[in-house]
C-alpha cells in the first residue's frame, strides 16, 4: 500500500482547517500580493508582524507610492531581503497605478502568465495569488510542498526546483484536487508533517506513509 496523492487528498483535508485560505494577513487583493512577495524566504509569522501596520497606512498601490521606498523599507526592515522586496513592491505599485487599479487586480491578471508579467511577481508568487484569490488550479510550491512531495515519494531527487516539482505534481495529482493542493500541504506541513519531528501519531495517512517515524 502506498501513500498515493489520491489517498492523501481524500483524507488530509478533513484534518486541516479548510476555512483558512491563507495565513498571510491581508485586507485586499493588492496587499495580499505584497504579503506573498514579502513571504519569500521569510515566515508568514514574521511577515504578519509588519503587515497590519503597513497595510493600515498603505493598503492600495497609490498609497504604497505615497509611502515611498524609504517609508516602505522602514516598515519591512526586519524581513529578509527587504531592500530588494521594497524595490519590487514599489515597481509593482507604479505599474498598477498606471493601470488604474484601486485594490483588486483587473480580470486580465487572473491567470498566472499575465500576473508574472508584473514587476516582482515570479512563478511561485503568481501561483499562490491565483490559487488563494481566485481558486485557480496552480500549485504553489513552497518549502512545505517541496519537502513533503519528496518525502512521500511523489517526485524524484532530480526534481530539484519548485518548477520541476510543480510540473510533476500537476501530472500526478488528480485535477479535482489542484485548487487545494497548496493550502492542504502547507497547513499539514506546518502543523503535522513538519520538517523536523513530524507528528506521525496524529497524522491521518500514517498507515500508508513511507516516511512515518
Ligand atoms: S506519517 Fe508522518 S511523515 Fe508521513 S505524512 Fe504523516 S506526519 Fe508526515
Describe this structure as you would to a colleague.
The protein is an all-alpha fold and 213 residues long. It has two domains: 5-19 and 139-208, Orthogonal Bundle (Endonuclease Iii, domain 2), CATH 1.10.1670; 29-134, Orthogonal Bundle (Endonuclease III, domain 1). 54% of the residues lie in helices and 0% in strands. The protein is built from ten helices and no strands. It has helices spanning 5-11, 29-38, 44-57, 61-76, 82-98, 112-115, 123-134, 143-151, 162-172, 178-191. Helix 4 packs antiparallel against helix 5 (82-98) and helix 8 packs across helix 10 (178-191). The longest helix has 17 residues, at 82-98. It is elongated, with a radius of gyration of 18 Å. The two termini are 17 Å apart. 36% of the residues are buried. The mean pLDDT is 93.
Short description:
The protein has 213 residues and is mostly helical. 54% of the residues lie in helices and 0% in strands.
- The top level CATH class name of the largest domain: Mainly Alpha
What are the distinct ligands in this entry?
Answer: iron/sulfur cluster
Distance between the first and last residues' Cα: 17 Å
Strand content: under 5%
**DSSP helix count?**
10
Look at the helices and sheets and give the structural class. Answer: mainly alpha
Amino acid at each position: 500500500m502506498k501513500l498515493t496523492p489520491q489517498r492523501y487528498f481524500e483524507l488530509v483535508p478533513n484534518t486541516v482547517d479548510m476555512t483558512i485560505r491563507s495565513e498571510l494577513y491581508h485586507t485586499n487583493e493588492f496587499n495580499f500580493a505584497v504579503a506573498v512577495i514579502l513571504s519569500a524566504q521569510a515566515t508568514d509569522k514574521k511577515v504578519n508582524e509588519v503587515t497590519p501596520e503597513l497595510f493600515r497606512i498603505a493598503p492600495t498601490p497609490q498609497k504604497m507610492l505615497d509611502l515611498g521606498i524609504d517609508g516602505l523599507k522602514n516598515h519591512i526592515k526586519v524581513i529578509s531581503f527587504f531592500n530588494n522586496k521594497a524595490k519590487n513592491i514599489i515597481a509593482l505599485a507604479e505599474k498598477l497605478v498606471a493601470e488604474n487599479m484601486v485594490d483588486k487586480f483587473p480580470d486580465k491578471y487572473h491567470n498566472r502568465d499575465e500576473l508574472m508579467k508584473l514587476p516582482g511577481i515570479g512563478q511561485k508568487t503568481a501561483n499562490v495569488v491565483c490559487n488563494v484569490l481566485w481558486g485557480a488550479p496552480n500549485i504553489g510550491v513552497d518549502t512545505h510542498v517541496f519537502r513533503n512531495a519528496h518525502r512521500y515519494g511523489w517526485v524524484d531527487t532530480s526534481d530539484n526546483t519548485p518548477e520541476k516539482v510543480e510540473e510533476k505534481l500537476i501530472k500526478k495529482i488528480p485535477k479535482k484536487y489542484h485548487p487545494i493542493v497548496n493550502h492542504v500541504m502547507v497547513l499539514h506541513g506546518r502543523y503535522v508533517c513538519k520538517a523536523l519531528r513530524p507528528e506521525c501519531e496524529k497524522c491521518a495517512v500514517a498507515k500508508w506513509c513511507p516516511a512515518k517515524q
